[in-house]
Amino acid sequence: MSPSIRAFIPKKVIKKPPAIDDSAFHRRRALDSEDGGQVIADPDADGDPHGRLATWIRSHARHHIPLKHPHTRIDVFISAGLYQIVDLDQRNNLATVSAYFDVHWNDDFIKWKPEIFGGIERIFVPIKWIWKPEFYMYHSVYGRVPDYAPDASAELHFNGKGKLSNLDGKFGISSKSWFE
């Protein structure tokens, strides 16, 4: 007698395509027909102009200060606003405040021609793709301003203007030096 092999062979599971194509929902794209369009970049969408622009920005943006010549400077503009005074420690002359910052600058390495990328004049990209300015508060107890949120996005314009909006955080400020 020859040995017989008995085994259970499962049928192949056939996956049916979903009734609704939800890939468009995952792209997180919000179009605005005014001002050249407001788009959150999706580098996986190479077929459309937004994906091509996102890929181009990712390859041309620099993670170090964007200067073409080491003897030039980059101007960073900062506006600050105070949300609230969280805590006031009169004994130690410390105030903890909640504030926000709007930061913008010009980056010569991320200028593009809108006509090449379907007329797109501005786009939102993750801040981990680009150089971000670091700034320090003069009277801060804890040193510099906290890091940017990892999921934040930067607004980039075709002329090289970069903008980070609504950076918020809590800061301890010493008031000793104000009155001495």
TrEMBL record:
Domain of life: Eukaryota
Gene Ontology CC: one annotated term: membrane
Pfam families: Neur_chan_LBD
CDD domains: LGIC_ECD_cation (cd18989)
Entry-linked Gene3D superfamilies: Neurotransmitter-gated ion-channel ligand-binding domain
SUPFAM superfamilies (alphabetical): Nicotinic receptor ligand binding domain-like
InterPro entries tied to this protein: Neur_chan_lig-bd, Neur_chan_lig-bd_sf
Domain Neurotransmitter-gated ion-channel ligand-binding as annotated: residue spans: 57-161
GO molecular function: extracellular ligand-gated monoatomic ion channel activity
Protein's UniProt name: Neurotransmitter-gated ion-channel ligand-binding domain-containing protein
Native organism: Caenorhabditis brenneri (Nematode worm)
